[in-house]
Amino acid sequence: MSRGSVYFFTVSILLLLFQWFVFVSVRKYLFSKDQGLGIKSVLFGIGILAILNMVAVRLVFHPEPLAPDTLAKQIVSVIYYSYIGYVILLTLVFALIELVWLGWRIVDQLVRERKHAFSGLRQNEQFVKAAKSSDIGPEIEQETSTSLPMGDDSPVPARAPTVYSRIPETATRRAFLKWSAATGVVFATGYAGHGIAEAYQIPSVEQYDVSHPMLRGINRPLTFLHITDVHFGLFLWSEELERLVDNLNGLEADALILTGDIFHSSTTPVHRAVPILKRLKPRRFGNIAVMGNHEFYAGERRSAEALTESGFTLLRNRWMTCRADGCKFHIGGIDDPRKNWILGRTFPQISRFLNKAPHSGFRLLLSHRPQILPHAAEHGIDLILAGHTHGGQLIFPAPGAKRGLSMAGLVSEYTHGWYKEMGSRMYLNRGIGMSFLPWRINCSPEIALFRLKPQERPDEMTPVI
Question: What is the reported pLDDT for 28?
Fold first, then answer.
C-alpha cells in the first residue's frame, strides 16, 4: 500500500470517529440520552456514516453524476467540506465540555469524601464528650487513650466506610452541560457561515513600497501584481476565475506574478481555465508563473501546457533578465519540491539554481513554498515572493501577536506577511482560493501590489511584521 493510501485511510478513519463522537455528544447533552449504545448500534451507525461519506466524496471528485464546473458541483463541495470542518470544530467543543465535566466530577467526589471524613470526626468527638460526662468516663477515657493489647476481644467502635458512589446529576449541572453544548453548536454554525462568506469575498489589494539601492536608474517605480493559490477545480470554478481576471485587468502593473497552485488536483479540468486566463491583459514584463505542488498533483505536463497556452511565461528553475530605463533586474522561478503540504521543505535543485543567478542587479525570486527563504538569504537574493500557506485560512487574534495565531503556524514557521533573514526579504501572500476547508476567518483572499523604487535613504526599509 502506498504512503498516500495509508494517509488517506488514516484520515478517513479519524473523520468517521469524529463524526460518531459528535453524534453521541449531541445525543447525550442536547437530548439527555446518556444511556450507552450496544456494539451493533455503534457499528451500524459508523457504517451509515462511512457510506454517506463515500457518496459525498464521489460527488465532489468524480466527473459523474455531477458535471465539473457547475453550480451543483460547487455547492456539494462547499457543503461537504464545511460539514467536515464543522465536525472537527464540534469535536473540539465537546471534548472541552467532557474535560470540564470530568473535572467537575473529580472535584465533587473529593468534596464529598472530605465532608464524609469531617462528619466522622465530629461523630467521634461527640461520642468521647458524651462518655466523659457519664459515670464511666474515666474508664472510657483510659481505654480510648491507650492501645488495646493483642488478642483483646473487647468491642471497638468501627468507623463508617468511605462511600464511592456515582455522583447524581443535579438539575443545575445538567442545565450547565446542555446550555454549554447548545452554545458550542451555535458558535460552530456561525463560525462556518462567516468563514464561507469571507472566503468568497472580493480579494483585497494589499499595497507595499519596496526600496532597494540596486533599483537606481529607473524613472518611475516598477509595479508588480502578485497572486497565488487559486486552486481552480475545488471551491473556485470558472465564475470566480472570471471575476478574478476582471479584477486583475482593472489594476495597472508592469508584471503579473503567479506563485503556483492555480490548479487543484488530477480531477481538475484545467482546459476550462485556459480561455479565461487568456483574457489577462499583457504586461510590460509579462505574466509570469511558477509551478506549485498542486500543479504536479494535477499533472505536470498538462499544467505546464495550460499555463503556457494561457500566455504565462513559465519559469522552471531559470532566470530572466528585464531592463527598465537605466536599470537591469532579474526574475527567477523555481519548481516546487513536489511533496505534500507539510513535507517538501528541502529543494533538491536549489544550489544549482541559485548558483546560476546573475551576480549584478536587483534579483527577485519566485517560489511557491516559503521555506526557500534561508537558502535564498545565503545567496543574497533581494526579494522573494511566495504562497502555499493560504495564511492558514483561519487566524485567531492573540494579545501580543502581530500576525495573530494562524492555523498554518501548526506546521510552518512562515504563515503570512513580511519576513526578513539577513539581507533578504520575503512576502508570503495569503492567496486567493482554499484547500480542504472553504472557510477564511480573519484571512481574506489577497492580491498584493508592490511598487519597486530606488532606495533614497540608507535606513529606508520595507515594513516587516
Answer: 85
